[in-house]
Amino acid sequence: MSLLSVSNLRVTFDTESGPVQAVRGVSFELNRERLGIVGESGSGKTMTGRAVLRLIRPPGRIEADQMLFDGQDLAKIPESRMRALRGRRIAMVMQDPKFSLNPVMRVGHQLMEGLRQRDHATRAEARSKALAALQAVQIRDPERVMEAYPHELSGGMGQRVMIAMMLIPNPDLLIADEPTSALDVTVQAEVLAILDNLVKTRGMGLIFISHDLRLVARFCDRVLVMYKGKIVEELAARDLLHARHPYTQGLLNCLPRIGGSREPLPTLDRDAEWAR
């Protein structure tokens, strides 16, 4: 049985000029694996991840034939039950820690807040779990980081704190939205190693949203390619660099190559049929 099964997911925003569909008929299944979602900005990747958590608010609307998670249809359960799943069993790492962490609260307070409010843990218990989470993401001096404000941390350190925060409840499913986009390649590799280890040791399912096709080809098990709110291709990650769909091929051809031609990169010629 799949950890998550999504069928005909649609996200629509009502505007003055009429409804706009950001996600159109997306269907996929996720086991305890690393599933990559790639595509251009505006292709619907992040909206798909947020829709699974039902984080789309009016004027946005989420509709789906079903979104089954551990036997529960996320599209139909009441908000009270959805709140019980968010964070505890399904978590999401947002794109940039600068905008996701509260700038006027110390890191430790933010890590402990959910444990104190949701799980009614004592301060000592919450602090112990927060320190353990920071150690799990390979932060060498967790005591110092607990007392720091977000602006005192580097981009890589802030991203590790975000991952630690999401992992404290030991979720079954983690949605990572561009978790390495603001990091240099060395720190990027360290963060990916942390996520990979968590999938293997905790048996967690991971949805990895990214623009970086080469990175996804190396890191993920399967890949969904999105264009204008639709999945246009699904394939094993090892086959991504040899994709057959012209849109995926176009994205790959637009990537710069070390030692390649100095000619301008090709532009992507789009076909209206891809969006049908």
Q: Mean pLDDT, nearest integer?
A: 89
Coarse morphology: globular
Strand count, sense and barrel status of the largest sheet are: 6 strands, mixed
How do the helices and strands follow one another from N- to C-terminus? EEEHEEEHEHHHHHEHEHEEH
Using only C-alpha atoms, the radius of gyration works out to 19 Å
Q: Count up the helices.
A: 10
Q: Provide the low-confidence segments as ranges.
A: none
Q: β content, as a range? A: 15-25%
So what's the oligomer here?
A: single chain
Strand order, biggest sheet?
7-8-9-3-10-11
In total, the number of strands is 11
Distance between the termini: 31 Å
Describe the structure.
35% of the residues lie in helices and 25% in strands. With 276 residues, the chain is of the alpha/beta class. It has a six-stranded mixed β-sheet with strand order 7-8-9-3-10-11, sandwiched between helices. Strands 1, 2, 4, 5 and 6 form a five-stranded antiparallel β-sheet that branches. The longest helix is centred in the last third of the chain and has 18 residues, at 185-202. The mean pLDDT is 89.
